[in-house]
Design brief:
Two copies of one chain form a homodimer. The first copy, chain A, has two domains: 15-51 and 290-396, Aspartate Aminotransferase, domain 1, CATH 3.90.1150; 72-287, Type I PLP-dependent aspartate aminotransferase-like (Major domain) (Aspartate Aminotransferase, domain 2), CATH 3.40.640.10. Chain A has helices spanning 15-19, 24-31, 52-70, 80-90, 108-119, 134-141, 162-165, 188-201, 224-227, 255-269, 274-284, 288-314, 340-349, 379-396, and strands spanning 38-39, 102-105, 125-128, 146-149, 152-153, 156-157, 171-174, 205-208, 232-237, 249-252, 320-321, 329-333, 352-353, 355-356, 369-373. Helices cover 42% and strands 13% of the residues of chain A. In chain A, the strands form four sheets. Chain A has a seven-stranded mixed sheet with strand order 2-10-9-8-7-3-4, with helices on both faces. Chain A contains 14 helices and 15 strands. With 397 residues, the first copy, chain A, is α/β, with parallel strands linked by helices. The termini of chain A are far apart. In chain A, strand 7 (171-174), helix 8 and strand 8 form a beta-alpha-beta unit. The longest helix of chain A has 27 residues, at 288-314. In chain A, helix 5 crosses helix 10. Chains A, B: It comes from Paraherbaspirillum soli. Chains A, B: GO terms for molecular function: transaminase activity. Chains A, B: Residues 51-388 form the Aminotransferase class I/classII large domain. Chains A, B: Keywords: Aminotransferase, Pyridoxal phosphate, Transferase.
Amino acid sequence: MKINNPTPIQWRFSERAQKLQSSAIREILKVTMRPEVISFAGGLPSPATFPVEQMRAAYDKVLSLQGKIALQYGPTDGYGPLREWVANSLSTSDAKILPEQVLMVSGSQQGLDLLGKVLIDEGSKVLVETPSYLGALQAFSLYGPEFVSLPSDDGGLLPEAVETLGQGARMLYALPNFQNPTGRTLSVERRQALVAACDKLGLPLIEDDPYGALSYRGEPLPKMLNMNPDGVIYMGSFSKILTPGIRLGYVVAPRPLVEKLEQAKQATDLHTAQLTQMVVYEAIKDGFLKEHIPTIRKLYSDQCAAMLDALQTYFPSSASWTKPEGGMFIWVTLPKHIDSKVLLAQAIEQHVAFVPGAPFYGNTPESNTLRLSFVTVPPEKIRKGIEILGKLITAML
Amino acid sequence: MKINNPTPIQWRFSERAQKLQSSAIREILKVTMRPEVISFAGGLPSPATFPVEQMRAAYDKVLSLQGKIALQYGPTDGYGPLREWVANSLSTSDAKILPEQVLMVSGSQQGLDLLGKVLIDEGSKVLVETPSYLGALQAFSLYGPEFVSLPSDDGGLLPEAVETLGQGARMLYALPNFQNPTGRTLSVERRQALVAACDKLGLPLIEDDPYGALSYRGEPLPKMLNMNPDGVIYMGSFSKILTPGIRLGYVVAPRPLVEKLEQAKQATDLHTAQLTQMVVYEAIKDGFLKEHIPTIRKLYSDQCAAMLDALQTYFPSSASWTKPEGGMFIWVTLPKHIDSKVLLAQAIEQHVAFVPGAPFYGNTPESNTLRLSFVTVPPEKIRKGIEILGKLITAML
């Protein structure tokens, strides 16, 4: 049946595709999957936190009672009861969020892609933190934006910079809680100043919040969404509080934007799996997360403390690092002359891995930075891995 | 916590987003969800064919035995054993398909979006059938192509047109088996001529095949993929042979393209749900589809026969329609002066719905056409609905 002597195609990719690269992190992860490696590189939540039995029971119940509905095509905007749950969970006494403001998506990453699709033209100015979340930079990059990096200090981005840098921009992307990659948290005062500054410019403010529930002290800061529901786009996810492998998140936005995002989603993948949404609703509707999330906080908080302790013991005093109050990451700044990519090459030889900081910058990278994740590594291995890194850094001084 | 007197945002959407519209079909579906409506409008498979118990048992088994893996993030290219299953199922004695040529996606629609992202620039020439699948036109449209409609007859597209129309094009998109919307099937001779014509031009040929397994006589025609694995991009789906609500499909392509698609997918949604892929593999690995697919064929074949019979009885002789040998759709051509949108408005008043043909054209629409789906309507209702449509059409003559 084969045709005679076919010629392999000379592929001509789109301009946007020519700019695509594989994520630096995913490439490192491939190297560090071997069991002998102590990996601080992953952004994966700890599987110890996955409520397997709760999910198994929910799949069983939904398929037993509503199988034909769960397995059919569903609406693009999402499963009604789950949208309502999300809206209720985000509403405050003076800022009510409506279910029709919620678009269910196939993980937060899809929310980022849809926002890029709908808001970014070639050359559009997009404000990002310094550093910012790599996955967002990747998703937006496909649409050809010009990134503008907002100056920051230990308390996160500086809202006063928005007024001048944000003129004519299409959006500002921020991760205010236990940021990926730095673990930094934006104070209430800065949140209010940021929301006000964006409102003044009419600039859409994206509040990406996958880690907000993972506050070690159990008291999350107020959401920017509730400070201005007409101007803030909120992104949430079930990946860090339930399980990432099912791919489920949501975008909450004013109606005109939700409508556009829904049209874009329809062209992109029709809808997010109906079964997944019904099962997650079944699993959480009776308050499961209220018991479950504190167990994740405890685990991560303990391992964060173990890493901070080890850093204090083994890292030279010329290095500095963030002290997260929640989430999954610590950010290390080394003396200027040390390139963390060079450090990584040496560390991998000694079976320790992390992610160099450079890819997290929208503009000029700071090559003396790195990201450490502590959530999938038990304390004794954290100690050992940090000891090895500390010795390598000391030798480079 | 709210800021004072916020101003609602004046949304400025990207140029591509301004072109976005909600699918005509999805809008019609909203109207026709009421139970009193006899709807031939849907593209949904019949829920009677969903193997609910098989899926329930597979979820139970995967979550019981491999829950922590299934609920974790997974690789972007897909679950290894399922990629291998797909590759084996598509391999023939003289055209072996390798697992690394398979990219798992969140439903075929995502495959279309990724192909558009990676192959289409603003103004790129894209060849499509006349008419073509609406979802593909929508997905590609976001990337600004210039569609070129290939001439066709009752046997589908005419391969001899490719040599002149295909010069400088980026791809040719075809649905050779029981096409959506027409139900037409491309003969083996035309397949070979099409593959050869595309090879001569170095033109990537997309073979979209969601219905291929639903041949009423049980003998699918040879795949174009196997006629030239180096030049054909094959798209498959579990939506029509297992269940659509889980959102699972695949793209099979030469490695240089798979690599680009994988990078684009990473930025788009990281990966398709690991749990879904493991469960589908569990459900089908021991040959379940071999027993299951014939039951779908039988149901659809019977209902197709009922509709063809009713059309013969109730439609005027000045109308013509396709006689599908598989799949889910019949395509009707009315006398030139009848606009099927006008017919639809009258039909909905009498509680019958279908999809007008115009949105399925990449270029000049033929407004006297319409698509009928027979798979979710029992034979007695098919008869009644077609009788109503026949009377309305006769009155318009």
